[in-house]
Write a structure and sequence with these properties.
disordered C terminus
Amino acid sequence: MKTYSLDCFYRSLYPDPMSQAALAARPRRSQEERSAETRARLLDATISCLIDVGYARTTTTLVAERAGLSRGAQVHHFPKKADLVVSAMAHLATRQAEILRRRAEALPRDGDRVGPLLDLVMESFAEPIFRAALELWVAARTDRELHASLYDFERAAGRGMQELWGEVAGEVAQAPAFEPLLELTLHLARGMALQGVLRPDDRARRRVYGLWKEMVASALRNGASSPNP
């Protein structure tokens, strides 16, 4: 089976400027740095497993094997599977947020920023990231421990996403309708990504999304120009 590589995915989104020669020339790492690398390998391997084989078949043993680490190393850092998978999603969300922030900051400061920002919101639900999250949402319906951990993570992640878009949107974020429109856009993006699991042809979704962008832009313009009550 062809396995999914997070490193390849993130390099395709934002190439790492550090060369292999520079990596080789780095000083010897501390114990703390080695521990952080071990955790990162376990978390990346967990996401890879969720995407390739699903939550039910993702075991801590398989994660350790895919990470190239011992079972003991995995248990030392993440004793429970629920801790491991939720930490993996948090790890992935953090890396994704960094990439999205850098992309948003690179957008032109003049002209329409609403459309490009909405496009970035939609991209945040693109595969394969969404598929990993979907595996956990479905499993959490009947797994109480996973549900509790995932619920707390989702609330924190939602607040973080709102803060991120507030930072990169600039003056647009001051419009009264910005936050509810952003929340609706997140729901729309999630629903469209879910529909894409069964219907890969996205032409109809693109038409609907184009209409939504026009509606959001109009609502923000009207809200920004209206006096406060």
